[in-house]
Amino acid sequence: MESLFENIDSKKRIDELVDLLNKYNEAYYQKNDPLISDYEYDKLYQELIELERKNPDLVRTDSPTHKIGEEPLREFRQIEHKIPLLSLANTYTIAEIEDFVRRCKESLENEEITFTADLKYDGAAITLVYEDFRLKYAATRGNGIIGDDITQNIITIKSIPLVVNKVMYNKTPLKNFEVRGEVYIKESDFLEINRQREEQGEKLFANPRNLASGTIKTLDRKVVAQRPLQVVCYHLYSDKVELSSQFENYQLIKQLGLPASNYVEKCLTLEDVFNYINKWKDKRFELDFQIDGIVVKIDNIKQQEKLGAISKTPRWAIAFKYPPNRKETLLRDITLQVGRTGAVTPVAELEPVFLAGSTISRATLHNYDYIRERDIRIGDIVIVEKGGEVIPKIVAPVVKKRSPDIKPYIFPEFCPCKIKSRLIRSEGEANYYCIEPRCPWQLRRRIEHFVSRDAMNIEGMGEKIIQTLIENNIIFSIVDIYDLTEKRDSLISLENWGEKKVNNLLKAIEKSKNQPFENVLYALGIRFVGKTVAKILCRHFKNIDSLISATKEDISSIYEIGDKIASSIYDFLKNSSNIEIINHLRKIGIKFSVDNDVDNDPTNISDKFAGKTFVFTGELSTMTRTDAAKIVEKLGGRETKSVSKNTSYVVVGENPGSKFQKAKELNITILNEEEFLKLINKSNENYN
Ligand code: IVH
């Protein structure tokens, strides 16, 4: 009886685990948006393997244990791998590595073994097939047997040679071979890309690995080419040449001109392997890329072949994964941060804790839902994790350690500033907002932004000074910065403010009046208007009046500007207090139009096409439509997406769409590519 119950329980749990893991796999591989950490995934996965081992009759056909990774995407050509792309078994303890070595020794009847240890790069696996020294194709792992042909994307990566160096091995040229490697993105590049996306109001990537794997599976090569992809190779196969050592293969990969791992080490003993693992335990945080562990491989290729593989993992290699960088610490308080747009973000104030290379005392809690879903409470001991996400996060409270008097966290009703206005959360918004325009906290952030280097660049006006000026009721708005000259005496009388400091500050304020229009526009702090968007707006509208009188459609018809950004700009300029600020700033001499010398700077823009709009349709043979649009913009014109009676030119390439028809109907000047090239060259000539 007992075993029947056990069987029913196991079936229930297996069903649960299969469904959950399949859901997590889909989120991870197809959507590039992981729902749980690798560690949590591996734990569930191990539990499923164990249950399936004990109950082979309950194994479901759709169990994730049968698959290696994702199903290949449909849009790419499918490629059947000559040799399956295997995965690696994971271990978390030294004892498991010892077991691995014991198993190898047993199978090899106690032959001597040595190892190669390498970092386990956290990216997306690829395989590169070379024939006759030339890259024949590149493919993703896919399901391990069939992958996607991503050659077009891979050849945008500069470090991948299309033709390899001539390398001899045992007197035979290495000309037909397959290399396996990982595509990844550096942490610094990842942060920069996300910074730019935030500026543009786009969704952020979860971590460098998802960005890398998402990128190589992007169908638009141009997007791929813009992303700083890195490649590292760690495995070489050749059926024509008899290779002998894994470590030596890394040197061969380098000689071929392919990027090989720089951190590989030959380990003669198991102790060497442990030393390698220990060395990288903390040192990994100094790297500008993420690793998710160490790979230990039997060095001798003949021995590798003898050991072979079981289902989806080789028996000659194993991964050692470091436990996640987690620590427990006290959540002292939850404070609120008010951004310059009024968005309120809860922040965890932590008992400082050293984690993964730095001391952490604060972490974002994102929004109220994040706190509520995890039931995080002030006074809790919480788990802090620094994982693939780069920025530390609060995983969960340790409920066992919670004292009974700790109450659930309720989001404050009022803004933490002294006005204490009621916070508002609208339908569909994740954040609460402070909508009080006089809120000093918003003001502080707005001023910090306004004076920052890429905006008005008011040197010496740091966070502390801004806070003092606001607290002492000296400034109430951005415009008051320019009235500070009249308040010289009250400034000097402020604690610790000498005459020199005040003079320097006033000088810097005066100097800021020379900042160009694009900096001024950026300084206004319009939501989604970063440096790039500000530049584009200046190029198109030339001055604030034409931007103010533009319709939402006028703004969104600019190539790089989407509806969301356009609405934000439009709404900002419809608000009378914003217009008041603009008018005030304009009166005191701040620039609200592009300088003539900017117009005439040959590296910048010309006005040959000023007021002209271009529509492109069909494939151009000498350049992409985006590049053509850029040239038009450089010459002062504008690209729009649709043909109207106001369109100046329609440029028609191969296989044009309906825009061509429309242009004919509306009698718009139609140019073929050659005519277009002549027109831009003529403009350039005149212009130079
Ligand atoms: S060797 C037969 N070496 O980790 C498998 N793999 O989780 C040989 N990986 O499929 C793999 N860095 O995509 C190897 N230095 C390294 C690696 C590495 C990252 C990836 C690879 C592998 C996966 C397993």
Task: Explain what you see.
The protein has 688 residues and is of the alpha+beta class. Helix content is 38%, strand content 20%. The chain folds into 5 domains: 2-66, Helix hairpin bin (Helix Hairpins, Orthogonal Bundle); 78-321, D-amino Acid Aminotransferase, Chain A, domain 1, CATH 3.30.470; 326-415, Beta Barrel (OB fold (Dihydrolipoamide Acetyltransferase, E2P)), CATH 2.40.50; 440-587, DNA polymerase, domain 1, CATH 1.10.150.20; 602-687, Rossmann fold. α12 (440-451) runs antiparallel to α13 (463-471) and α16 crosses α17. It is globular, with a radius of gyration of 31 Å. 31% of the residues are buried. The chain binds 2-(butylsulfanyl)adenosine.
Give a short synopsis of this structure.
This protein has 688 residues and is α+β, with helices and mostly antiparallel strands. Strands 16, 17, 18, 19, 20, 21 and 22 form a seven-stranded antiparallel beta sheet that branches. Strands 2-15-12-3-11 form a five-stranded mixed beta sheet, sandwiched between helices.
